[in-house]
């Protein structure tokens, strides 16, 4: 094999040139960021953490706070570090506050009670929306998983939800090929409905009788009270 420029051998590399990544200088770590990321967090905050809490209370963003601390303290915190550290600060302060509540050194205020109810309602609504989204995806995922399990089965999310409800309620019709006694199935269905209607009628009758008993007792009580008032009036005469 011949090489360009009439070389019969590959050109030799200079011995002074670097031969690969092994000769590269290792990256210089950032000691400030390295050390500060490991500063312990307790309920008693230092001045830097107090600034983070104060700026977050003023609705400053993580990027803004990181820039301010870099200018004022030379902290080297990134926006991601600010967000993570602020969460850890709040958890530490919450833990310290739990101890104060347990030892009766601190008590809930009326404003805190009102804010608690508001915060709970906000997050309850948020969670209900998330659960609704998860539920909406449940049967869509079920339909695709059903197809993964049974490759020739293509039932929609709506069909899966309807059929599962029928199965759980005991109302699912079997496939005609699997139904060896359709007359018996129809008879069982009628008997089941009759028993259900009988229970409903009995409950309604019991409710009516309970209401009548209540009314009878109410009028009886009124008659007794009138009799007592009359006896007392006769005695006063």
From TrEMBL:
Q: Name all DUF7626 domain ranges.
A: 44-98
Which residue ranges does the record annotate as region Disordered?
1-34
Basic and acidic residues: bias regions:
1-10
User: Which InterPro entries does its entry note?
Assistant: DUF7626 (IPR056043)
Q: What is this protein called?
A: DUF7626 domain-containing protein
Natural source organism: Phyllosticta citribraziliensis
The top of its lineage is:
Eukaryota, Fungi, Dikarya, Ascomycota, Pezizomycotina
């Amino acid at each position: 094999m011949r090489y360009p420029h009439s070389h019969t051998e590959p050109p030799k590399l200079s011995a002074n040139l670097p031969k690969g990544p092994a000769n590269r200088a290792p990256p210089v770590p950032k000691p400030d960021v390295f050390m500060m990321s490991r500063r312990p967090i307790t309920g008693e905050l230092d001045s830097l953490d107090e600034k983070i809490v104060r700026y977050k209370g003023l609705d400053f963003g993580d990027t803004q706070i990181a820039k301010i601390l870099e200018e004022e303290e030379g902290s080297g915190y990134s926006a991601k570090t600010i967000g993570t550290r602020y969460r850890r600060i709040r958890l530490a302060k919450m833990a310290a506050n739990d101890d104060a509540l347990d030892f009766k050194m601190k008590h809930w205020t009326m404003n805190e009670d009102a804010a608690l109810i508001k915060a709970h309602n906000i997050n309850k609504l948020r969670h209900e929306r998330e659960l609704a989204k998860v539920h909406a995806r449940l049967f869509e995922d079920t339909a695709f998983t059903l197809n993964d399990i049974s490759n020739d089965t293509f039932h929609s999310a709506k069909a899966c939800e309807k059929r599962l409800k029928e199965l759980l309620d005991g109302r699912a019709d079997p496939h005609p090929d699997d139904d060896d006694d359709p007359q018996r199935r129809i008879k069982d269905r009628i008997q089941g409905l009759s028993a259900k209607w009988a229970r409903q009628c009995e409950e309604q009758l019991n409710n009516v009788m309970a209401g009548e008993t209540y009314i009878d007792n109410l009028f009886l009580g009124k008659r007794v009270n009138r009799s007592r008032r009359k006896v007392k009036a006769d005695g006063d005469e």
